[in-house]
User: What shape does this take?
Amino acid sequence: MQPTANPQSFRPALATKTTLAVFALALTMAIQTASAQTYSVLYNFTGQSDGGNPQAGVTIDHAGNLYGTTFDGGSTNCTLLRYVGCGTVFKLSHRGSGWTLAPLHMFIGSPDGANPSARVVFGPNGALFGTASEGGLGYGTVFQLQPPATFCPTPSCPWLETQLYSFESPYGAAYPGAGDLVFDPQGNAYGTAGGGGYLCDDGPCGTLYELSPTGGGWTENAWGFPGNGYGFGPAGGLVFDGASTFYGVTASYLFGGIYKFNDNEITEIYTLPEGSSASAGLILDSAGNLYGTTSDGGTNGGGTVFEYSIAGSSLTTLYSFTGSGDNYPGPTAPLLMDASGNLYGTTHLDGAYQQGSVFKLSQSNGVWTLTTLHDFTGGADGGQPFGQLVMDAGGNIYGTAQAGGNSVGNCYQSLGCGVVFEITP
Assistant: This one.
């Protein structure tokens, strides 16, 4: 493998087009819409010790607690000066009629990592696992979080953070991005990284990596995306079929596609249309169909939702978004499917106010119909969501928006520190 170029920032660009007049009108209209659609903000980030600008969604446990990460904020001892803090891991718990946030860990850059842009997930041992996109030995980390060994009398006690692996070479995996970790039945962890591997035209082609527990530590194996025909720049993480095969997407503008990984080999199985950029991972239904999104392209240029039949090797576009004229206005997070087969997701800069939306796609007689559950304004309700949605047993939907909220002046580009939100049925 060839050495990689210097990494580029993982931070996506925040939109800045909203004028004060439009913002005020949009906020008024959004409050009316939110009331009708039972949208509520559970938490406003401040950019301080609680963190700021969440770029990933949340994970929910059996008790209804929410766990997530923020890209910014946290400790004032962050060793990386490019951003406003090294980020956090948090827990949001229902307390009476409200919600209480507890920072579980505040990253400092070295040695624990910095700026997580993926969710934390529960691993085989019941602990929380996640990745930090930078820091550690220089190229990001994989970490584990567990509750304190002794009883904690307050809800704000930090959890025990263990650095499981620190990526240290640009020749292997480097800079793990926005995809969740996935575990196989043997307890091996798999993920994708935007850095490492071969060199493509615009920098590193990206890697798929495996971490195997061995002798009290973890051993890395990495496979580089070769580019040209196979795509490069893995977007999001992997989905596992439960047997032997992982599936994912690459984001290259010209050569992006759907790939599978088994028998230690990456194989592209479908090339997306030119001009369609996949920006999020896939989900898999019980019939063996993959569902995913593109953040641009499609009939109207605003991105698409698609279904890919593994057995039939065919792709069907279920919906095309209108778009807003900005780059990558459409969905940038994996979809969520409920028990009835309805699909839920977010758009980044689409929607009535070009600040993103939450949508539902329902099928009837082979026709998919989109319902907008919320249009973000970039104000108190949040804006520009990047993270995946999650649903509890009661059908309540939870997610994050990286911008907006009540702490407008404290975070990146002064566009707000982001929120955690809920949409009730």
Residues 220 and 281 are 22 Å apart (CA to CA). The longest strand covers residues 98-106. Helices lie at 20-36. The chain has one helix and 31 strands.
